[in-house]
Design a protein that fits this description.
Layout: E1 9-14, E2 34-37, E3 46-51, E4 68-76, E5 82-89, E6 96-101, E7 108-110, E8 115-119, E9 123-131, E10 137-146, E11 157-164, E12 173-177, E13 197-204, E14 209-217, E15 223-231, E16 243-247, E17 257-259, E18 267-274, E19 285-294, E20 308-316, E21 320-323, E22 326-328, E23 345-352, E24 358-365, E25 379-381, E26 389-390, E27 395-402, E28 409-419, E29 425-435, E30 441-442, E31 446-448, E32 456-465, E33 467-468, E34 474-475, E35 482-489, E36 495-498, E37 506-508, E38 513-521, E39 527-537, E40 548-557, E41 568-570, E42 589-593, E43 603-607, E44 613-614, E45 619-620, E46 624-630, E47 642-643, E48 652-656, E49 661-670, E50 680-687
Parallel strand pairs: 3-11, 13-20, 22-29, 31-40, 42-50
Antiparallel strand pairs: 1-9, 2-4, 4-9, 5-8, 5-10, 6-7, 6-9, 10-11, 12-14, 14-18, 15-17, 15-19, 16-18, 19-20, 21-23, 23-27, 24-26, 24-28, 25-27, 28-29, 30-32, 32-38, 33-34, 35-37, 35-39, 36-38, 39-40, 41-43, 43-48, 44-45, 46-49, 47-48, 49-50
Length: 688
């Protein structure tokens, strides 16, 4: 049995005045001038509506179908009230319903047509027309908006074109699972099981991967999704530990998801996450089920598709591990993977602890970016393992050699792998390498400028290559050459490095010292400032990252923020009981009618009385004030109509109003140290 599915058509004209349209001089003042527009202001002549039929093919009512609502704005560009008479006529007029504001909370309610509506001069109103077809197919009618004035001949007429949808007259669930190429299957009652199973091939344990499911309503009435739950088995309905619903938020019977063709929400996507937890070998394949509960009567059983989707994931263990993971070739106690210390040679064991064969896909030293060698030949590989396959439970031996030199160097060797089956990333390992005599980076741990009095100040900063002892003594006899790879300040408006600067890769011999300087730029407002000086060297004692030492740079000055400007305006009548224009004063925007000011010349008092200056301890008044009349200035007025308009100690000014228009006044204030406030503005709209 084939029945139609409804999509909504509605015409909305909400009776809310929106103000002057101001699109021209309009018709003669004695006549209304009605226009029918969409909400963007374009002339509206045709409305196309689509909705589900309210009756099925057996003429029985269909539940949960809704009209298609279209909104129309009626604008009166004339300068007199319009008595708009709205009527719907035509062969299918009964399928269109007029709705006007008037319900609780401004809701729209059905109105009998013809319906008369007042549209004030130079104003707009909105109403609604709902399209509710009784059957599938085309429907036509027209909406006429008559101003009921014989002298006007251009009454708006809107053609109403409706289409009743030919969809099933009951909610009908259809689902689909995402393919690896991004497309979706179609899972219906008759679908193959493969179209109803969402799969995750080769996901590492404890790694999250997401796939999507489409939930669609193929019927005309609204499909209400009351539950989305994921279980590990359908009998016990045990919640799954490996799969979870990411989005949308889980619906309920009291707050269902409504999928409705009429308003364009017939389909949604749900995102499912697979994050397998490693519980030991032999348990790599995980399964579960997504259960979609709806009001589709043909899909009420929890054991059938499309309301049940299979979930299947194949988990992989992170494959690579290594022992050891570092070697200091110059330290006698570090065996570097050997049973006894071998000069300048390290042996690392790389194992595949996973459940799939892996292939080494990349080998490189961090310093060179390649496998040919690191630190200018100080480190090298006895043989390159790139391309080698390691089966589950097997291992390879990686040998690294070192060329001994006094200068201490640091490097890192990294190996990456992929699974032989599928090529997915299978994990990586890295090895920290050290060689040479270790340097002895020595600096202060903090630079404190305390409370400098001048706007700028500087301090010397020294980097030494020595060891310090608790008793104050030093020693450099066991130190190697210190290489200062880089030194710099984190970006800061307050602190910077100045001459003498230390060049990159500067060597400092044992017992030696280099110098630079830090400059502090004191902000006018004072307060505490914090910066960070970073030194990157070849001393592995500091980090992370290895070889990095950070020094805090601080300064603390008395807090003295800029003053705050407050600008208010008062007409003479306000000043009788409020001479400082503080209580009755108006900020930001004020309107002045010249006819209400009896004194001549007509003026407005401008007051900065409420402006303030806080120096960190005491609230006081700013030291200086400046009132300014900004352009554009109304015709007939000049900047001299504001007095005073220069920077001074007076906190009030007078604005003379020789003409109507918009006067733009600005105020800025200063404290006793010359800090300026942010400017504030007052727009004074002067009317006759």
């Amino acid at each position: 049995m084939h029945t139609t599915r409804l999509k909504f058509v509605a015409l909305t004209l909400a009776a809310v005045a929106t103000g002057c349209n101001c699109r021209g001089s309009g018709p003669m003042a004695s006549l209304p001038d009605l226009r029918a527009e969409d909400l963007d202001g374009a002339v509206l002549s045709v409305i196309d509506a689509v909705a589900c039929p309210t009756l099925d093919e057996n003429k029985l009512p269909v539940r949960d179908v809704f009209p298609d609502l279209k909104r129309v704005r009626i604008t009166n560009n004339g300068r007199v009230l319009a008595k708009a008479k709205l009527s719907i006529t035509g062969p299918d007029a009964a399928t269109f319903e007029l709705r006007v504001a008037g319900g609780d909370g401004g809701a729209f309610v059905k109105a009998a047509v013809p319906y008369e509506l007042d549209v004030e001069a130079l104003s707009s109103v909105e109403v609604q027309v709902a399209f509710s077809p009784r059957m599938s197919g085309a429907a036509t009618a027209q909406l006429t908006i008559d101003d009921q004035v014989a002298e006007t001949t251009m009454d708006p007429v809107i053609s109403l074109v409706g289409t009743g949808l030919a969809l099933p007259p009951q909610p009908t669930l259809e689902t689909g699972v995402e393919y690896e190429d991004g497309g979706f299957s179609q899972c219906t009652l008759e679908a193959l099981f493969g179209d109803c199973e969402l799969t995750w091939p080769l996901v590492q344990f404890d790694t999250a991967s997401t796939r999507r499911v489409v939930i669609r309503n193929r019927g005309c009435p609204a499909l209400k999704v009351t539950s989305l739950k994921i279980v590990s088995d359908l009998r016990a309905m045990t919640p799954s530990q490996d799969f979870r619903l990411v989005s949308p938020p889980a619906p309920s019977s009291t707050s269902p998801l409504s999928l409705n063709k009429a308003d364009g929400t017939e389909a949604i996507e749900a995102t499912i996450e697979f994050k397998p937890v490693d519980t030991g070998p032999g348990n790599e394949v995980r399964s579960g089920y997504l259960i979609v509960d709806t009001n589709d009567l043909a899909n009420m059983s929890p054991m059938q598709q499309p309301g049940v989707l299979g979930l299947r994931g194949e988990a992989l263990r992170p494959a690579l591990s290594a022992t050891p993971t570092s070697c200091d070739f110059s330290r006698t106690s570090d065996l570097c993977g050997n049973t006894t210390k071998l000069p300048d040679r390290a042996r690392f064991i790389v194992r595949n602890d996973g459940n799939g064969a892996v292939r080494i896909s990349e080998v490189k030293f961090k310093s060179s970016g390649s496998a040919s060698g690191g630190q200018n030949g100080r480190f090298s590989l006895a043989s390159n393992p790139n391309g080698m396959t390691i089966n589950p439970g097997s291992a390879i031996t990686l040998e690294v050699t070192h060329s001994d030199m006094p200068t201490y160097v640091i490097d890192e060797l990294s190996l990456k792998s992929v699974f032989v089956q599928g090529g997915a990333a299978a994990g990586d390992v890295s090895f920290a390498l050290f060689g040479g005599r270790q340097p002895c980076l020595d600096t202060v741990d903090e630079v404190n400028f305390n409370n400098p009095m001048t706007p700028t100040s500087a301090q010397s900063f020294f980097i030494r290559n020595q060891r310090r002892f608790p008793d104050g003594g030093t020693d450099s006899s066991q130190c190697g050459t210190l290489i200062i790879n880089q030194i710099g300040m984190d970006p800061s408006p307050f602190f910077s490095l100045i001459d003498p600067k230390i060049a990159a890769n500067t060597p400092v011999p044992p017992g030696g010292m280099v110098e630079t300087a830090i400059q502090y730029n004191k902000p006018p407002s004072g307060g505490m400032q914090v910066g960070k000086l970073k030194i990157l060297t070849n001393d592995p004692f500091f980090g992370p990252p290895v070889g990095t030492k950070e020094i805090n740079v601080i300064s603390a000055s008395p807090f003295d923020p800029p003053p705050q400007a407050v600008l208010k305006g008062c007409v003479p009548a306000m000043l009788i009981n409020d001479p400082n224009c503080t209580v009755s004063g108006v900020e930001v925007q004020m309107t002045v009618n010249l006819s209400t000011i009896t004194a001549n010349p007509k003026t407005v008092r401008l007051s900065a009385f409420d402006s303030s200056d806080f120096d960190g301890m005491t609230m006081r008044k700013p030291a200086e004030f400046q009132f300014r009349l900004n352009n554009p200035i109304p015709a007939g007025a000049t900047a001299s109509n504001l007095s005073p308009n220069t920077r001074g100690t007076v906190d009030q000014a007078t604005l003379t109003l020789p003409a109507t228009g918009l006067y733009r006044v600005q105020l800025q204030v200063w404290d006793n140290r010359g800090q300026a406030s942010q400017p504030v503005n007052l727009n004074i709209n002067v009317l006759p």
